[in-house]
Amino acid sequence: MPKKTLTSKIIKLILAIAICLLLIFLNPRNFFNPVRGTFLKISYPFQKTFYLAGQKTHNFFSLLFSIGDYKKNNEKLIKENNELSAKLADAQDQKRENEELRKQLELSPRGKYNLEPSLVIAQDPRGSGSWIVIDKGKADGIAEGMPVIVFDGILVGKISEVYSNSSKVFLLSDSGSSTNVSDVETSAKGILTGEYGLGLKLGMVEQTDIIKSGDDIVTSGLGGLMPKGLLVGKIDQVSNSSDKLFQEAVVRPKVKYSDLNVVFAIKGVK
């Protein structure tokens, strides 16, 4: 049989079946009710199978979409939680800073000096440190040379550089630092210098003066740039200079410079 004839017969058969099925389902004047009922009865198991399979497929894709939505919602919740945690941490940090500032304000000699409270926002990365940066500058009336103290009037350094809203402070331990001081117990005078961020050294003390371990060292007020009586530290060890002309001593600071958080710039004496 020629291939074209076979194809033509198949097409005619398909069309005939399609017309019959269409007539059965359209069922004009209920003429095909018996045939339709028999067809539906025979095809019911297949319809049920296809329906259940369709439902499972629908449920499967619904589950996939639900997982996708859940993942998006979960990521959104995690992001919001991280943002809230960051805000809470920042609020707690500000609260802690405010509490520390208030505590040190109560201990600071406000009745004697015009003080500008400041937070330390950077420091020498070498550990013990020789400088810090504070969050107050020209806009707050800060000027170069101003003494910087902590609670109870303990001197820690001087303003060395001033910017609009911040300032750099050279600590007493900086190698370029030099301060006129005296021994509280004996009134012996000398010059306090920094030891390259490692500590403090008292020098230029005359041999006739008396200094001893445990004595408190304060600013002498000589030179007029530094108020008198600011506490610096305690004498730890006394010796003679290499030329034997003067006495010198290691001075132990009253505070650990690397732990500074709140300081006060002395803008003037009241």
The ordered string of helix (H) and strand (E) elements is HHEEEEEEEEEEEE
> Which value, in Å, is the CA radius of gyration?
44 Å
Categorize the overall geometry.
rod-shaped
On the 0 to 100 scale, the average pLDDT is: 78
Q: Find the count of extended strands (DSSP E, 2+ residues).
A: 12
**Amount of beta strand:** 25-35%
Task: List the uncertain runs.
Answer: none
Question: Helix- and strand-based class?
Answer: alpha+beta
Q: Characterize the main sheet.
A: 6 strands, antiparallel, barrel
CATH superfamily of the largest domain: Rod shape-determining protein MreC, domain 1
- End-to-end separation in angstroms reads 124 Å
How many separate structural domains?
2
CATH arch. level architecture of the largest domain: Beta Barrel
Order of strands across the biggest sheet?
Answer: 1-2-5-4-3-12
Regarding quaternary structure, what we see is single chain
Helix content: 25-40%
